[in-house]
Design goal:
Blueprint (H helix, E strand, L loop, with lengths): L8 E9 L5 H4 L2 H7 L4 E5 L15 E7 L14 E6 L6 E4 L6 E6 L1 H4 L5 E7 L9 H19 L3 E7 L14 H4 L26 H13 L1 E3 L14 E2 L4 E2 L2 E6 L8 E4 L11 E6 L6 H11 L2 H12 L5 H19 L24 H19 L4 H36 L4 H14 L10 H11 L4 H14 L1
Parallel strand pairs: 1-2, 7-8
Antiparallel strand pairs: 1-14, 2-4, 3-4, 5-6, 6-7, 8-12, 9-12, 10-11, 13-14
Helix pairs in contact: 4-6, 7-9, 8-9, 10-11, 11-12
Protein name: Endonuclease/exonuclease/phosphatase domain-containing protein
InterPro entries: Endo/exonu/phosph_ase_sf (IPR036691), Endo/exonuclease/phosphatase (IPR005135)
GO molecular function, one term: catalytic activity
Length: about 475
């Protein structure tokens, strides 16, 4: 098992099947609070119709996005991916063109992030077997993904996150007894697979997508992080629905990167999606500039550090671990005096981003919201308890319906009031208009360009060109 955990970390990379990137989610304070913990965020199943419909998330820059063509028989769009990065790190990320609409590749520049190698990150969405047109579609998806892995693994390390809709149970993602089945004399360049067991609370039988995923890991030397790290020792489920829970969202890394990952974590379940965000954390680094190296040489020869080394030499530790620990602490103290350590700071809460209560949000809505939150906590604690899951989804359904009803009633009342006082009471009419304007979340401050304004009215007056010419001259003079 991997027992490496470092609180000081450089980069948080997360993936979330958001199940529809709608405005109500983007403006939700809880959504903003969750994503504020991430530096790079891949969103899958955005369900958007147009690439231009993607907007920057609060505090993030959009790196690249893709949509999936809508099925003629479908009521809404499906699929869709986007990669978003905090403004502070977006300059160190490069995008790559990919043929498939459900795979996005990007590169983390090693110089910008102070990493040993470039890291090539892929975000993936594979449809469930019931929704896929044929088994060949799933196989071709894994084939294209494997081609990218082979290509980019020659240039750096690989990290893949995605909703694979794959059940893998605890089946090995490595070649079992690899050392026994291959003689070292056969190929001097052959690397043997290490046996690294993993846990999985989802005991479902391995499906077709799961077989492809495990075979891809064996062929490429990648390893699944779920159920193998300090923060996810048991393989926590990533998707919780009314009927049950399953582990279908995976984080997979190259073997060389395995020891560098600080931890892998399945984030808490929320009412925003049936899926939990998954998070990889890469450890921090000291920035060793020429000035920092010279300063380190000076500091290690200072009286304070020399005294500590003298005490270290004279001290009888009794245990090797204590001796190594104290020696490392002296070196770390000297390094902290000499240079800067990039670490993951605790994200500051943006108080201005607090969601204002809607004017139609009644007491009944608030009561249902509290019930949803309470059952959300219980589902997080006991994901396999059917009673809590069913209660959560029942209350969430009631809450959404109640909100729609209250909003509809509020708008109908406003419209009726506007109709009744438009002529009889203009003051009340304009008060209502201002009230609607202040409560609106859509604020457009863009001014209309002069040329567009001119061309629009010239088209409207083409039939009356004689009058239009005098109007145009007068208009230019006024401006």
């Amino acid at each position: 098992m991997i027992n490496k955990f470092d609180q000081k970390s450089l980069l948080n990379i997360a993936m979330w099947n958001i199940e529809g990137l709608i405005s109500s989610k983007i403006n939700d304070s809880h959504f903003s609070q969750v994503i504020s913990n991430f530096h790079i965020l891949g969103l899958v199943e955005t369900w958007l119709e147009d690439v231009n419909a993607y907007t920057n998330l609060p505090g993030f820059d959009l790196i690249v996005a893709k949509i999936r063509k809508k099925n003629k028989k479908a009521r809404r769009n499906s699929g869709g991916l986007s990669i978003n990065a905090k403004t502070s790190v977006s300059k160190g990320i490069s995008e790559f063109a990919t043929k498939h609409s459900d795979i996005l590749w990007t590169k983390l520049e090693h110089k910008f992030f102070n990493l040993p190698k470039d890291i090539y990150v892929a975000f993936v969405y594979i449809s469930p077997e019931s929704a896929a047109q044929s088994a060949d579609d799933i196989q071709s998806m894994y084939t294209q993904l494997l081609e990218g892995i082979v290509k980019y693994s020659k240039l750096g390390d690989i990290l893949i996150q995605g909703d694979f809709n794959a059940y893998t149970n605890t089946m090995p993602d490595f070649i079992v007894n690899d050392e026994k089945s291959h003689s070292s004399n056969d190929d001097v360049f052959y690397k043997f697979d290490n046996s690294l067991p993993r846990n999985n609370l989802d005991s479902k039988r391995v499906n077709n997508s799961g077989k492809h995923l495990l075979n891809m890991c064996k062929e490429s030397g990648l390893r699944i992080l779920n159920g193998r790290t300090t923060c996810d020792l048991f393989g926590r489920p990533t998707c919780i629905t009314y009927n049950g829970c399953s582990l279908v969202d995976y984080s997979i890394v190259s073997n060389e990167l395995l020891s560098s990952v600080g931890f892998f974590k399945v984030h808490e379940f929320t009412a925003l999606s049936n899926h939990c965000p998954i998070l990889d954390d890469l450890p921090g680094k000291y920035i060793w500039s020429d000035e920092a190296i010279e300063l380190y040489k000076t500091n290690i020869q200072s009286k304070n550090i020399k005294d500590k080394f003298n005490n270290f030499i004279q001290k009888d530790f009794g245990e090797v671990n204590k001796m190594v620990g104290e020696f490392n602490s002296i070196l770390i103290e000297t390094a902290n005096m000499s240079t800067k350590f990039i670490k993951r700071g605790k994200p500051k809460r943006d108080k201005s981003n607090k969601t204002r209560k809607k004017p139609w949000f009644s007491e009944s809505c608030e009561d249902l919201r509290i019930s949803v939150k309470n059952y959300e906590k219980l589902v997080n604690k006991f994901p396999f308890k059917a009673e809590y899951r069913k209660s959560f989804y029942t209350f969430r359904s009631h809450f959404r319906r109640r909100c729609k009803y209250e909003e509809k009633q509020y708008k109908e009342k406003i419209c009726n009031d506007l109709d009744s006082c438009v002529e009889s009471n203009p003051k009340v009419f304009w008060k209502l208009i201002n009230k609607l304007d202040q409560s609106s979340t859509c604020k457009i401050n863009e001014s209309l360009p002069y040329n567009s304004f001119k061309e629009h009215f010239e088209k409207l007056t083409l039939e009356h060109r004689g009058r239009n010419e005098s109007f145009s001259r007068k208009y230019h003079k006024e401006l």
